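Per reviewer request, we include the raw input and output of the structure prediction for the construct analysed in the revised manuscript.
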Amino acid sequence: MPEPLTLYLAAPRGFCAGVDRAIKIVEMALAKWGAPVYVRHEIVHNKYVVDALRAKGAVFVEDLAECPLDRPVIFSAHGVPKAVPAEAAARGMVYVDATCPLVSKVHVEAERHHANGLQIVMIGHAGHPETIGTMGQLPAGEVLLVETPADVGRIAPRDPERLAFITQTTLSVDDTAEIVAALKARFPAIVGPHKEDICYATTNRQEAVKAMAPLIDALLVIGAPNSSNSLRLVEVGRRAGCAYTQLIQRAADIDWRALQGARAVGLTAGASAPEALVAEVVDAFRARYAVTETPVETARETVEFKTPRVLREQLA
């Protein structure tokens, strides 16, 4: 007789509207122009998704120089520096921008502050494509990056009275609040965003994990090791008191020995992880335990983003 186990399923989890739109853009581009369609950087940070699109004819590259001039290129959901579409246009390439609209909103914000003569402080992770893309909207030196409250003490802005801050959309809500507090303490005149930059999906997934943490002995987060929002879910789980919180890419990554003795396990998925992987993990638990599934719902998401007109027009 298998041991009983309660599997708490976070809701919301998995794909957000921006990821959904980005994947659709690649599929629509393949339907419109045929294979191959080139994609600059992984369209979203998930191997399962990238491999599935590769099988349909998407070719993933890190540089426009790797793209032939006669094939369309798509920019990933994370956004790109301004120089990238400028280079594509100069080379006469057909390109489609799959940047998440909520990332684009941060780009517009940065440009507006810059136009008003403010220098920007960006809260984000160095080297992450979203950070690179956002900082690349403005001339070099106009955006100062901070990753921790300690970094706030190290930056040397041009004029401490003329500053604004923006954030990466996939950060930990709590960590970001600490950094914002440090910025406001050091630069009382700093201007913040009209509306939180951290996106609704990141916030909602973190809230669901916090709600689940007191109920569980272990937490599994389905996501990729290069997925910022998935890594933040792991941190949030640990901070909320769930000492055994593990990032897994698929069911094959589950460490069953570490789960021995657990009676309640939480399961969530980062914003770029498809529901098929959640189902795979649930099936793996069902094969070993007498599972009772219990949803932990903290929000309902109804956001949808339109795909670019260039793809809709000729597919209609």
